[in-house]
Specification:
- There is one protein chain.
- With 253 residues, the protein is an alpha+beta fold.
- Strands 1, 2, 3, 4, 5, 8 and 16 form a seven-stranded mixed beta sheet that branches.
- Helix 4 runs parallel beside helix 7.
- The longest helix has 13 residues.
Length: 253
């Protein structure tokens, strides 16, 4: 599923083999990717270089656990990376070539999406709040509305995130999911544990949201690895480090 660019960066074959876009995400290069941070500029520059882009054509949203989706163009280049910009969104879509759109995560689910027919790319940050609000499905809907994309053409690659065996949560989260998921779906999403705790399957929530939006199952690629299980990726649950992040991006060629 993944392809090594070098020892610090990986990529999704399902996207790259289309020849329409390049996907990149950090492995050994996990570090601080703060919003519009001069201290992190060198990391951003290396990431942009790995994607074959200029740092001034790179975007990183604030990610405040919303369900907001931004349709970005070249005017947004550099926002959140090397200049100020107000992007409170947790997902970005674009049809602009050479615009590197990114999200940062550390246990939350990063999703990279591509419509190779309409040549539209997107990247999504989906923690429990974004997943409960179906941000993935809303991203697909905005791709349809703004760019005329057909969901059955869209390829979705889920990046490293905390798995359902490791993500322990309290019962208070269930009500948030009930707003957008059925009782049967919630039973699949939340596996009970002793002590009034549950294991939450974030990637299943993302998948259900994508399927509901019309993405076909064979175009949804979910890896069999977990940020909590390995030292290769940033994980807040494992380290309680509030600075290290996985950066995930996509650029249209």
């Amino acid at each position: 599923m993944e392809k090594t660019i070098n020892e610090d960066y990986l990529s999704f074959n399902e996207i790259n083999e289309t020849g329409v876009a390049l996907s990149v995400y950090t492995a050994g290069a996990c570090g601080s990717y703060s919003y519009n941070s001069p201290e992190d500029a060198e990391r951003y520059a290396r990431f942009a270089e790995a994607a074959g882009c200029d740092i001034n054509m790179m975007i990183r949203p604030e990610q405040t656990h919303t369900d907001l989706v931004l349709a970005a163009d070249k005017e947004n280049g550099g926002e959140g990376v090397c200049r100020e910009g107000r992007i409170p969104h947790d997902a970005i879509i674009t049809n602009e070539k050479g615009l590197l759109i990114t999200v940062a995560s550390a246990d939350c689910v990063p999703i990279t999406v591509l419509d190779p027919v309409k040549r539209v790319a997107g990247v999504i940050h989906s923690g429990w709040q974004g997943t409960s609000k179906c941000i993935s499905g809303k991203t697909i809907e905005k791709m349809k509305k703004d760019f005329g994309c057909s969901p059955e053409n869209i390829i979705c690659c889920v990046g490293p995130h905390i798995c359902e065996d490791c993500y322990e949560v309290g019962p208070e989260l269930i009500d948030s999911f009930r707003e957008h998921f059925s009782e049967a779906e919630c039973r699949d999403l939340f596996i009970p544990k002793p002590g009034d705790k549950y294991l939450l399957n974030l990637s299943l929530g993302v998948k259900l949201s994508l399927l509901r939006a019309g993405v076909v199952e064979e175009n949804i690629h979910i890896p069999d690895y977990c940020t909590f299980h390995t030292d290769d990726f940033a994980s807040w649950r494992r380290t309680h480090d509030r600075t290290k992040r996985i950066l995930t991006g996509i650029v249209l060629l």
